[in-house]
Amino acid sequence: MEKENPFKGHTVAVTGKLEHFTRDEVMKKIASLGGAPRSGVSRNTDYLICGTGSGSKLEKAQAFGARIITEQEFMNMIA
Q1: Helix (H) or strand (E) holding 74
Q2: What is the pLDDT of residues 25-78, one digit of tens each?
Q3: Rounded to whole angstroms, how far apart are CA atoms 48 and 38?
Q4: CB 17 within 8 A of CB 54
């Protein structure tokens, strides 16, 4: 049985400093999972992966109702 991919067809942005990925690595991983990586947050953002030192992107994502996840949650979701 194949595990469901929660990022397929969804728009994903990243903010803050990540411990296990560079920004480029996480963007490539999202794309490989069928997601649409974006550098900015908009009304179309489904997920925001949040590292340390998050700023205005976090506030925008909360205002737009995007699902906010930590880097660890992201890693668990793709495992």
Answers
A1: helix 71-78
A2: 999 999 999 999 999 999 999 999 999 998 899 999 999 999 999 999 999 999
A3: 10
A4: no
